[in-house]
C-alpha cells in the first residue's frame, strides 16, 4: 500500500476560473496552485510530475503572476526525500508546469504516454505556449529527460498497486496515476480535472483538445477509483498526506 503527498510549487493569483470550468464563471478569479505528487510505499519513492521551472524562469515564461514559488529539490528535502531517492518519474503530460526539473534526476526512468510525446513534438499553434520551449536553450522543458523516457501506449501497471491510465481530453496523451492505498484507490488525475469541481459536476476544463475524449475519460474514471486528486485545486493542500486512514 502507498501514501501520497502533494508537493507545492507556487500559486497563480487571480486566475480566471473559466479556464478550468468550460463556459462557466467567466471573470471569476481564483488562486491556482502548481502541484505535483510524491507516492511512497512498498520500498518505492515515485514522483508524479516534476513541476514548473525555478521561480525566476517561471515568471519570465508566463504573463500570470506566480506567488510563493518554490524549488522542487528544496521541497523534496523538506519532505525528507533527496532527489537521488526517486525510483522513477511519471509525467502526466508535457505542459510546462508539469515537466521541468528533469535535470535533477539523471538516469531515472520517466514514464510518458506515446500520444503525448508525439503531440508535444509539434503541437498545434494554439497549444504552443503550454508546450513552450525553454528560453535557456531553445528546447522544450521535457527534452532534458528524453533519453530516460519509457514510452507507454495506453494503460499499464508500472509497479504492484501503481498503474498508468490514459485519460485524453485535456491533451491527447494525458495520463492519470492509479494508486492503491489503505484509504482506498486514488487517481492522481492531474489536469484532466484541474479542480475537484470538474469531477464532482462532470464539468470539463476550459483547456482541452477534445471534449468527446474528455467525457469518455470521465466515464472511465468513475469505474477505476474511489477518490481523485486534481491538478490545480487549493483544497488538495488541506491535507499533507493521502492514503492513510484517519484514527
Architecture overview:
The protein is of the alpha/beta class. It has a single domain, classed as Ribonuclease Z/Hydroxyacylglutathione hydrolase-like (Metallo-beta-lactamase, Chain A, 4-Layer Sandwich), CATH 3.60.15. The protein has 5 helices and 14 strands. The strands form 3 sheets. A 7-stranded mixed beta sheet has the order 4-1-2-3-5-6-9. A hairpin with a 2-residue loop joins strand 2 and strand 3 (44-48). The chain is globular and about 45 Å long. The two termini are 17 Å apart.
CATH architecture: 4-Layer Sandwich
Number of domains: 1
Q: What is the CATH top level name?
A: Alpha Beta
**If strands are numbered along the chain, what order do they take across the biggest sheet?**
4-1-2-3-5-6-9
Structural class: alpha/beta
* Range of strand content: 25-35%
Kindly provide the radius of gyration, computed on alpha-carbon positions and rounded to a whole number of angstroms: 17 Å
Shape: globular
Share of residues in helices? 10-25%
Secondary structure tally: strands:
14
> How many H/I helical runs?
5
Kindly report the name of the CATH homologous superfamily. Answer: Ribonuclease Z/Hydroxyacylglutathione hydrolase-like
Distance between the termini: 17 Å
- Rounded mean pLDDT is 93
Largest sheet, if any? 7 strands, mixed
Secondary-structure element series: EEEHEHEEHEEEEEEEHHE
Report the uncertain regions: none
- State the CATH topology: Metallo-beta-lactamase, Chain A
Amino acid at each position: 500500500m502507498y501514501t501520497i503527498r502533494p508537493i507545492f510549487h507556487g500559486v497563480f493569483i487571480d486566475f480566471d476560473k473559466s479556464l478550468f470550468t468550460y463556459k462557466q464563471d467567466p471573470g471569476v478569479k481564483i488562486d491556482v496552485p502548481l502541484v505535483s505528487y510524491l507516492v511512497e510505499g512498498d520500498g518505492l519513492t515515485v514522483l508524479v510530475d516534476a513541476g514548473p521551472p525555478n521561480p525566476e524562469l517561471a515568471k519570465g515564461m508566463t504573463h500570470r503572476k506566480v506567488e510563493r514559488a518554490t524549488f522542487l529539490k528544496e521541497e523534496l528535502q523538506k519532505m525528507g526525500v533527496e532527489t537521488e531517492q526517486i525510483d522513477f518519474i511519471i509525467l502526466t503530460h508535457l505542459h510546462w508546469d508539469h515537466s521541468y526539473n528533469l535535470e535533477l534526476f539523471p538516469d531515472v526512468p520517466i514514464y510518458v504516454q506515446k500520444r503525448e510525446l508525439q503531440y508535444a513534438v509539434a503541437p498545434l499553434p494554439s497549444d504552443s505556449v503550454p508546450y513552450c520551449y525553454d528560453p535557456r536553450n531553445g528546447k522544450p522543458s521535457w527534452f532534458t529527460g528524453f533519453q530516460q523516457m519509457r514510452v507507454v501506449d495506453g494503460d499499464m501497471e508500472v509497479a504492484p498497486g501503481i498503474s498508468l491510465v490514459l485519460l485524453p481530453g485535456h491533451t491527447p496523451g494525458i495520463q492519470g496515476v492509479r494508486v492503491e492505498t489503505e484509504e482506498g484507490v486514488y487517481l492522481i488525475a492531474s489536469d484532466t480535472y484541474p479542480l475537484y469541481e470538474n469531477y464532482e459536476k462532470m464539468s470539463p476544463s476550459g483547456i482541452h483538445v477534445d471534449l468527446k475524449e474528455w467525457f469518455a475519460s470521465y466515464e472511465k474514471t468513475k469505474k477505476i477509483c474511489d477518490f481523485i486528486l486534481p491538478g490545480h485545486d487549493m483544497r488538495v493542500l488541506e491535507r499533507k498526506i493521502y492514503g492513510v486512514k484517519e484514527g
